[in-house]
Specification:
By secondary structure, the chain is of the alpha+beta class. The chain has 17 helices and 19 strands. The strands form six sheets. A five-stranded mixed sheet has the order 1-18-15-11-12. The chain has a five-stranded antiparallel sheet with strand order 13-14-19-16-17.
Length: 587
């Protein structure tokens, strides 16, 4: 990748009164940063330990504790003060120590610690991904941190057959051997409700579990059917983010090769299963091999209907194949630029919806598949991952899968000019509500579960990700950041947009990004580096300012903003043509 110093400098000198959106954007970054400091003081101790009752389990466990740091690394990468990444580091280090020390009594694999080698001992990637979400994005703000580098390599090695204590991966068959996996290796037996729910705990009168169970018996009942975990499961594609981060950090081919090899195995399995990704792969590599040949078998699979949800008394359909799995294929897209990895998803959605039926005069679409074929017919099409698919492919036909067109997409299409201001205002109102509720929180550390503060976390980065970066909010899905633009401060030598600068992505097409940059300071000039993609994966071919076009031909371009200046830039781009990297532009 060509150093930024060889790229041209774009100068914006036109005076522009600070737009409302720019002031709101800067205030949302500032206010969240201040609120995070108060949140940390309220819910963490001086060691960085979360002030709660630490437990193992799917209802409330280590991943939920880590989610209290969710979006902090993203906010730092957007331009929050250095204090935010410092607090994240303190909380993350404390979290790793706290849950290494925490031990289960009855859950076999967690008796010697819920973490081993700083990684969960054995659980599913629904929970691994949620707990690692903030860590996965640390490299966007802090790639030079030695502990981050060491952990990135070590964690990836757990799934590359590099750790003799964690035989999670079968390199010959290119499969992860169980849905339950981690630093202690795979669980090669049927899971029990205890494995999922954790040790017995007093509930009534003490805790208010967010999953609505009223007592420990109901917690066990919740998970009574969560048994078939042996063999590979599409949710294990979450592990590819470990390989992706390791490659983006080091550039070492072995991480890229492992990721593509594993994803390609799922591409082949999907093709062999009539274009629909199977939800169980046996230890022998056969589709459905660990579930009596049922391609729809396994926990969270196509046929995973739970007999009783104790808090409602109703049958619950919990097919999670479509949740987050697409991002595993998107990791391969980031590395190769090959749209086949997401076209596979488009084909699968079409194949599922092709089984629609007319019921009571209305077209209904299936969302589940079991012993008797397709079932759980609904009015809306099966559209898991459709918005993400549209963003990655920019295939307009994909939008037809969605019940309604998202406001963000309408805005980018020039149909909703009020969206930026209203979305930023809503973000400030949400932040105010969370801080007020935090200050009223009556819980004490011994009556607080680890996920209780999750909904009070002040880091609200979804709107900023869409508007500033033209990107998909990562949330707690446990995957890399997908965006069209990213910013760096070359003066402070850090990630994020410089002080006083605001950015608004106004249009996205396959080969163009329109962004307005504003310097709200009337006194100080500012310089910002604009990068194509979160990992430099997109090339900026040309920048057009008014009638002036400047050739770039790099992943970055430097923009100098005079005091009080602002302007609109049209960037002609090529998507997914560079190998992704966590290196900063001046490295």
């Amino acid at each position: 990748m060509t150093p930024t110093s060889q790229a041209p400098v774009i100068r914006i000198d036109t005076l522009l009164s600070p737009p409302h959106w720019a002031l709101l954007e800067r205030e949302l970054i500032r206010a969240q940063s201040a609120a995070i400091e108060e949140f940390f003081d309220h819910y963490f101790d001086d060691r960085g330990y979360l002030l709660c009752v630490p437990r193992w389990g799917g209802d409330d466990g280590p991943d939920d504790a880590a989610e209290n740091l969710l979006n902090w690394t993203t906010l730092s990468a957007l331009g929050a003060p250095d204090r935010i990444i410092e607090l994240y580091r303190k909380g993350w280090e404390g979290h790793l120590r706290q849950y290494t020390e925490a031990r289960a009594v009855d859950v076999p694999f967690a008796r010697d610690g819920m973490y081993y080698k700083e990684f969960p001992v054995c659980f599913d990637w629904f929970h691994h991904g949620e707990g690692l979400s903030a860590f996965f994005l640390q490299g966007l703000a802090d790639p030079g941190d030695l502990k981050f580098q060491q952990r990135t390599r070590r964690f990836a090695g757990l799934y590359m057959d590099e750790d003799p204590q964690a035989k999670n991966y079968d390199p010959e068959r290119r499969l992860i051997r169980s849905m339950f996996n981690g630093s202690r290796g795979p669980l090669l037996r049927r899971a029990t409700a205890l494995d999922w729910a954790g040790d017995p705990i007093e509930v009534e009168g003490r805790f208010q579990p967010l999953h609505r169970e009223r007592n420990y018996a109901e917690m066990l009942e919740h998970f009574q059917d969560y048994n078939d975990v042996v063999g590979d499961n599409p949710l294990n594609l979450g592990a590819t983010t470990l390989g992706f981060n390791a490659f983006a950090l080091t550039g070492e081919a072995k991480y890229r090769d492992w990721l593509l090899g594993y994803v390609d195995a799922w591409v082949e399995r999907t093709a062999a299963n009539d274009g629909i990704i199977p939800s169980n792969i046996g230890l022998d590599g056969t589709i459905g091999g660990a579930c009596g040949g049922k391609r729809y078998g396994g926990v969270y699979g196509w046929g995973f209907t739970v007999n009783v949800a104790p808090y409602t008394g109703e049958v619950a359909h919990r097919n999670c194949v479509g949740q987050r799995t697409l991002y595993g294929f998107a990791n391969a897209l980031l590395l190769t630029g090959d749209q086949k990895y997401v076209n596979l998803w488009r084909e699968m959605l079409g194949r599922v919806n092709a089984n629609a039926r007319v019921i009571d005069g209305q077209t209904r679409y299936p969302h589940m598949h079991g012993d008797n074929g397709w079932y759980d017919y609904r009015a809306e099409k099966f559209s898991s991952g459709a918005l993400e698919l549209y963003y990655l492919s920019l295939d307009r036909d994909v939008l037809d899968l969605l019940p309604t067109k998202p406001r963000w997409i309408s805005y980018l299409d020039g149909e909703d000019a009020s969206y930026p201001v209203e979305a930023l205002q809503e973000g400030l109102l949400t932040l105010r509500g969370r801080v007020e509720e935090m200050r009223r929180d009556p819980t004490t550390p011994d009556t607080r579960l680890s996920d209780d503060p999750n909904y009070l976390n002040p880091a609200i980065t979804e709107t900023l990700t869409r508007l500033m970066l033209g990107g998909l909010p990562t949330g707690r899905d446990g995957y890399p950041l997908h965006c069209r633009l990213r910013y760096f401060d070359p003066v402070q030598q850090r990630a994020g947009i410089p002080a006083d600068v605001a950015a608004l992505v106004e249009k996205l097409t396959a080969d163009e990004v329109v962004v307005t940059l504003v310097n709200i300071s009337p006194v100080h000039p500012r310089t910002v580096i604009v990068q194509g993609g979160a990992y430099g994966e997109h090339e900026i071919v040309e920048v057009r300012q008014g009638d002036t076009a400047t050739e770039v031909g790099h992943a970055h371009v430097t923009v100098h903003l005079a005091p009080g200046a602002g302007g609109r830039l049209r960037l002609r781009t090529k998507r997914y043509v560079n190998q992704p990297t966590l290196a900063f532009p001046w490295t």
